[in-house]
Amino acid sequence: MLQDAITNRDKELANRIEEVDDIVNLITVAGRGYGLNVVTDPGFELDNGTWSFTTGDGTVDIVETDKYAGKRSLRVDYGGAASANARQAISVVAANVYSVQFWTRGDGTNQGLWMVWDTAAGPIVSQRTTGVTAATWTLVTHSFTMLAGGGTTYLIFYSPSTAGYAYFDDITVMDAITYATLDEVVGQLWRAMRQILGDW
Fold it and tell me: 100 in a domain, yes or no?
């Protein structure tokens, strides 16, 4: 009888482990979508022409003297009325929700600006300050819904609006639907593992 109880217990554990394996497989599938960044060369490491620069009255430089990660970052300096900027065309889908994340720092007084602009739909995210004037790298996050009938969509980073400079690095634009999918699957895994650990 004891042997039968142990055998049944082992079978129950095996079934639960199999359930966890299924959830892990789901995480693997979800993970292939999660983290797919539509920004090319997000850390300015390659300098391969995927970013376009407009100096205006200021300057735009890929620098190694100050960066959040890797070896390089973007620095944009104000020089007058025509703002310096760096921009890249990104591939987005109408009606999808996207999460924008980037690391930035100011010069201690001034902050950079950024926006998402579409050649047909106009501003998707209107030009705005980063909110980071400190000379300390800080993460900025923002979500937007892509409008229908768009043309070419650009992610743009600008110099401060007054004399000063700002840095940008480690930029991502990802489909926010993937976040929800992955969160849900991770939650399932956590609940299943807690049940196993609780019984054993």
Answer: yes
